[in-house]
Write a structure and sequence with these properties.
Blueprint (H helix, E strand, L loop, with lengths): L2 H15 L4 H8 L3 H8 L7 H10 L4 H10 L17 H14 L4 E4 L5 E4 L1 H11 L10 H6 L11 H19 L2 H11 L23 E5 L2 E10 L7 H5 L1 E7 L2 H11 L2
Antiparallel strand pairs: 1-2, 1-5, 3-4, 4-5
Helix pairs in contact: 1-5, 2-3, 4-5, 9-10
Length: 265
């Protein structure tokens, strides 16, 4: 494909993925529908500023903005660094601070596809209590650990509720970023036994509490936890936009006492 036709195809794809008409997108981008039509059929070539305007109107993540720029024949703008890059030291310090502040309760940092990047001691203690020791160099994907059959699922009393909610979250991610990697993650999760029906399942009874708690049980020990998810507020890097910080909080006093006891010297 030439840059012109590649950009035109991607622009049409994103507009249709958002379920918008040409009029919808032209109004959001504050351009004429005629000009948008010319861009979508390759009759007109976009300027760099026009690519940014359309990407913003389409609410594309930074990674997908780069892809649209490249498709139009421009260099990508947003950098993608590893978390251990020297110029991200302050970011790492901030993440470590948040993980430390969450102790003795669990906290993790994951990427867009739920690969584990960082974890505090509280998270390690919880997982090792449920599943046994973790190898120091183990590569952990929390999505697979939650939805798959052999890690957290045997200990998660309300697995169907929690996994169903999580799978719908990944489905929303796949719709938002339009990436092959997120789509593949969704299909992998749905391939696990009993997972696919959860995508459309809805609770038969009203919710019992204000949030959906995770109910873990091992032998006679029961832990009830809920989570919060945070992101960096003003990312200017592809990787930093995609990371999530997930904090786990006790849903009752028994769980809080147990987690604090595990951390006691």
């Amino acid at each position: 494909m030439t840059a012109k036709t590649d950009f035109a195809a991607r622009l049409r794809w994103w507009r249709r993925r958002r379920s918008w008409s040409q009029l919808d997108l032209s109004l959001r981008a504050e351009i004429s529908q005629r000009h948008l039509s010319f861009l979508e059929i390759g009759r007109a070539s976009p300027s760099r500023d026009m690519v940014f305007r359309l990407a913003t109107a389409l609410d594309l993540p930074l990674r997908q903005q780069n892809e649209l720029l490249v498709a139009a024949g421009f260099a990508p703008v947003w950098r993608e660094r590893d978390l251990d890059a020297p110029d991200l030291a302050e970011i790492r310090d901030a993440l470590d601070y948040m993980l430390a502040q969450q102790e003795p309760f669990p906290a993790v940092v994951v990427d867009r596809r739920w690969n584990l990047l960082k974890a505090n001691r509280g998270a390690v203690r919880l997982v090792e209590f449920l599943t046994g020791p973790i190898a120091p160099d183990a590569r952990i994907n929390l999505a697979d650990a939650l939805v798959g059959p052999g890690v957290l699922r045997p200990h998660l009393v309300n697995w169907a509720e929690v996994a169903g909610y999580f799978i719908r979250t990944v489905e929303a991610d796949a719709a938002a970023d339009g990436s092959v990697e997120t789509a593949e993650l969704l299909e992998r999760l749905l391939s696990y036994e009993a997972a696919r029906p959860l995508l459309k399942a809805r609770a038969a009874t009203p919710p019992a509490g204000p949030v959906l708690a995770m109910h873990f049980r091992k032998s006679d020990t029961l832990l009830r936890l809920f989570t919060t998810v945070a992101t960096l507020g003003t990312p200017q890097d592809v990787m930093l936009q995609e990371i999530r910080i997930e904090n786990f909080f006790p849903m009752d006093g028994v769980t809080a006492t147990l987690l604090r006891g595990w951390a006691a010297p």
